[in-house]
Amino acid sequence: MNGQNMLAERTVLFENAMNHRHNSRVPMFSNFWTWKYLDGGYDLYQVLHDYDLLEKANREFHERYQFDCYMDIGTRNPLRVSDAFGGLMHHVDASGEALVVDDRTIMYPEEYPELRDDPQEFYWTKAFHRYVKNGLTLAEFSNGVKEFMDFGAFVARIDSIFRFEYGAFSASPPNTFIRSPFEFIFSYLRGMRESAMDIHKHQTELIETMDSMWETMCLPVLQRAMTADMTGSITSVGFAFLATSILSPSQFEKFYWRYFKQALDMAMANNKRVFVFSEEEMLRFAEFYEDIPKGVLFIHPEQDDLIAFRKRLPNITIAGGMPASLLGYGTRQECIDYAKQLIDCLGEGYVFSTDKMMSYRNDAKRENLLAVTDFVRGYSY
Amino acid sequence: MNDNDTAIDKNKEVDFSYPEGFMEAAASLDFLPEEMRVPMLIALSGTNQ
């Protein structure tokens, strides 16, 4: 089947899943990251630094397992770009099999007003300055910008291959993934430990700055997403939830929901859908999502029991659930039995995926993943 | 390089002052059309998602 036909078939599968209608089979969502390079026999450092090899490895992964939708197609780890500026935060560890991101602070708490009032000056003089190595020359800087552009060209190339040659889906269209203000502060500027302290010690400055970041950084992306080409995308706009791990429900309402609700409201007003990739537990915040109409929100949780999730939030389309521990250490039959149970229990409004980001060698055995993907592709529930 | 670009010593360290250092870094991107240099710097340094 050619890419156009696959795209048409997958469009029906995901339309049905989003609207909780019965499907001929459950669509499969790839939550596979660096595991695919280890599975393919590649050296992690080498493949992440060679775009032709990266394309080859991602093509092989798709052709071997035939997922319907991808979180990552080789665009997650632009190591050549970060290396060009000094490589201070991202590196392949000594084992050669894991990518490490340091929890680093490139902004101090007294600088919130600077970020709020003049982000361009703040990023240049503070955050970006601290992100790069000491003594960066203009020649090295120019080279880093060229790497940044080369990476952008690779993203466009691989996206086109997956979308049009393979007819494979992404969760949301290119360039419509939003890091909400607290997420950006938590993951990029202040780090986990410092962000957790800011919630208590710098609450006013934090909220004032996040309000400004939402207006200047996030809203333009959200507005663009409302008119983006939806070909090969399940939703119109995506969010990653990681920083919610350190928030109580009341803190979630104060620091996170105030922005995310705007995105949901805008999506609903425009008849669009929203995707959330959550690396943390979502059911703690279930009360916020219980009144959202079916067909609007698609959540990929990693830390929740999906059966409990479905009971508590039957209005949400969900993906995930297949344990990496089973794919890594179980037998083929145990894996198939578990996949069947998931599909039989969750059925309509469910998209098959794993319960964690698949990054390490022991997250899955090839024989198990092949057995499970073959089974899910052929199983009429 | 465009005809009206002035020569910049690429071996000197990046000046992270603002706006002088910012504009000098933008001007050093002589492989880009002039109108793309500042937007590229903004995208790269973090203000653009």
Describe this structure in words.
The complex is a heterodimer of chains A (381) and B (49). Chain A has 381 residues and is an alpha/beta fold. Chain A contains 17 helices and eleven strands. A six-stranded parallel β-sheet of chain A has the order 6-7-8-9-10-11. Chain A has a three-stranded parallel β-sheet with strand order 1-2-5. Chain A is globular.
- Biggest pleated sheet of chain A: 6 strands, parallel
* Radius of gyration of chain B, CA atoms, in whole angstroms: 11 Å
SSE order of chain A, one letter for each helix or strand: HEHHHEHEEHHHEEHHHEHEHEHEHHEH
Beta-strand share of residues of chain A: 5-15%
Give the overall pLDDT of chain B as a whole number.
Answer: 84
Strand element count of chain A: 11
Which segments of chain B are poorly predicted (pLDDT under 50) over 5 or more consecutive residues? none
Overall geometric form of chain B: globular
Measured on Cα atoms, how large is the radius of gyration of chain A? 21 Å
* Termini Cα gap of chain B: 29 Å
Helical content of chain A (DSSP H or I, runs of 4+)? 40-55%
Average pLDDT value of chain A?
95
Tally of separate helices of chain A = 17
The class by helix and strand makeup of chain A works out as alpha/beta
Widest sheet, order of strands of chain A: 6-7-8-9-10-11
**Could you say how many structural domains of chain B there are in total?**
1
General form of chain A: globular
Largest sheet of chain B: none
Beta content of chain B:
under 5%
Task: Please name the defining characteristics of this protein.
heterodimer, A: 381 residues, alpha/beta, 3-stranded parallel β-sheet, 11 strands, 10% strand, B: 49 residues, mainly alpha
Sum this structure up briefly:
The complex is a heterodimer of chains A (381) and B (49). Chain A has 381 residues and is of the alpha/beta class.
